[in-house]
Amino acid sequence: MNSLHAGIGMTSARTRGRMIERLRTQGITDETVLAALNSVPRHAFIEEALSSRAYDDFSLPIGHGQTISQPYIVARMSEILRNGKQLGRVLEVGTGCGYQAAVLSHLAREVYTVERIQPLYMRAKKQLFDLKIRNVHVRHADGTLGLMDGAPFDGIIMACAAPALSQALKEQLSVGGRMVLPIGTQEQFLYLIEREASGFRETRLEAVKFVPLLMGKA
Ligand code: SAH
């Protein structure tokens, strides 16, 4: 590594450290989640022209009208999903650039992530491969109904908002499993769905703003 690259590496490690401190002040307490966000180079998932803003608490454009979620929301959803325990199989709907999937790779044994837009799928797959992340399986698919051939999952995360909760998706949770997702159109809220032996428990959490879930592959 030449000194220029070493310099960039050190700067981003420091900036990442500041992001972690900010997440703590925003109320994230799960140390495993904070460690995961500290170890994933967020700037690597963003085009170079925007990389100086990679660790700010904003969503940023990743092309094709889509965005990388802000660090707080990635941390918050991961914390809710994990609930203090190591995860087994996890599904993410809406890979985007692959950042949330990279974070999940530290929190779960196997991560399945689906993206409907082909160029985003290709870029995320390459980025995760280049970062030597081997427990994330990226698929080019419509994840509206989840991922049949990977189910059931201990955790499901949606990175795009549906107008309503789909029964098909709920059915892909294992008993004891948890799903975190935004629901709504103009006004959206984060929901936690827990599958218990006797049925599903739904809890409405905070207001959020996500890109919409769209049908079909593109
Ligand atoms: N997880 C990303 C956020 C990506 S934004 C991150 O780490 O930052 C949400 C993504 O969901 C977009 O890339 C969008 O194309 C995708 N998406 C929307 N509807 C979808 C569907 N039905 N199936 C799969 N992906 C979908």
Task: Report on the architecture of this protein.
The chain is an alpha/beta fold and 218 residues long. The chain has a domain of 146 residues: Vaccinia Virus protein VP39 (Rossmann fold, 3-Layer(aba) Sandwich). The protein has 6 helices and 9 strands; from the N terminus they run H-H-E-E-H-E-H-E-H-E-E-H-E-E-E. Strands 5-4-3-6-7-8-9 form a 7-stranded mixed β-sheet. Strands 1-2 form a two-stranded antiparallel sheet. The N terminus is likely disordered. The site of S-adenosyl-L-homocysteine has 25 residues, from strand 2, helix 4 and strand 4.
Short descriptors:
218 residues; alpha/beta; Rossmann fold; 7-stranded mixed β-sheet; two-stranded antiparallel ribbon; 6 helices; globular; disordered N terminus; binds S-adenosyl-L-homocysteine
